[in-house]
Amino acid sequence: MYREYGVAKLSGLVALDLVEEMRVALDEHVANPGQWVTDAGFRSQRCFGLGDPLLRGYLLDPVLGENAARAMGSTTANFFFDHMFLFEPDTPIDGHYWHQDLPFWPVDGDHVVSVWLSLYDCEPESAALKFVPGSHRERRFYRPLGFDGSPMTGDLGDRAELAIDARSQFFDHAAPAFHEDPETHGVREFSYLAGDAVIFNTRTVHSSGGNNSPDQRRLAYSTRFIGDDARMMLRQGVFQDPALLPDPDEHFAVGAPMRSRRWPRVYPMTSGDE
Ligand SMILES: O=C(O)CCC(=O)C(=O)O
Questions:
Q1: What is the pLDDT of residues 251-265, one digit of tens each?
Q2: What H or E segment, with its residue span, contains residue 23?
Q3: How far apart are CA 8 and CA 35, in angstroms?
Q4: CA separation (Å) from 178 to 30, 128, 207, 273?
Q5: Which residues on neighbouring strands pair with residue 79, listed in sequence order?
């Protein structure tokens, strides 16, 4: 399923008692956001979970890592980063924000995967994540835009000179409005119960349609993993999230394997690991 469609459902991934504890933990981070926050009508926050004992336990759980490794077809899975998305009730959006994740990130490869966990029940009307199955097989990316549709440019600081001309990796346009003709594009909608997840290739096009429910909250927590073939990459002229670069004292070279103390091995565990 995952290999063919670039997405697969993981029903009941997390038990309800842990879901409830995670809601509380995530709400604390919503109230006290760290550095990496975006508000586009809905809240997106990333790279905060490892400092939180409860969330850290979830993010580095070897069972989650094994799911990721098996889906990717990789012998290993390293944690890459965590990313929370919150739509309060009645947060409609104008259209969709169809996108692939990989071109926003300083990484390349097929072994890059996300596990998107829903902390509340959600339906397509209440911002359930939907997908364009098979879009991970397209070797080019749509031009990345911000969640609000604005163009994004990246400031890579000292590392800008390492970025490569990646124009051949991109179409010259952003993702089409797949929701306007869902049947032709085979758009796959899912419904989620709290604790359900989807695992998806970060080349697979995805979006929600905003939260049109007057009373249903939508909170999701994505965990990103990297596997054997993931390589460091910086692309000129597109946003390459600076939160995801290795620490400044660590070696960075385009094409090099992903090695950083920020990206701990989750699967397989070796003795001495957490
Ligand atoms: O939860 C959302 O609405 C967006 C999720 C997403 O884009 C992701 O996890 O990569």
A1: 889 999 999 999 999
A2: helix 16-31
A3: 31
A4: 31, 15, 10, 43
A5: 225
Question: Cβ neighbours of residue 265 under 8 Å, at least 6 residues apart?
Answer: 76, 77, 78, 273
> Ligand 1 centre and the CA of 195: distance in Å?
16
Domain residue limits, the chain: 2-261
Query: Which of 82, 88, 99, 114 to probe ligand 1 with, by most ligand atoms within 8 A of CB?
Result: 114
Average pLDDT over residues 156-178: 89
Closest ligand 1 atom to Cα of 116: 9
Instruction: Compute the distance between CA of residue 245 and CA of residue 247 in angstroms, rounded to an integer.
Output: 6
Pick the CATH number of 2-261 from 2.40.50.140, 2.60.120.620, 3.40.50.450, 3.40.1440.60: 2.60.120.620
Read off the pLDDT of residues 70-127 as tens digits, 9 standing for 90 and up. 999 999 999 999 999 999 999 999 999 999 999 999 999 999 999 999 999 999 999 9
Closest atom of ligand 1 to CA, residue 206:
7
Q: Which amino acid is at 105?
A: W
Q: Is the pLDDT of residue 272 over 60?
A: no
Pocket of ligand 1 (CB under 6 A): 83, 85, 101, 114, 116, 129, 206, 208, 220, 222
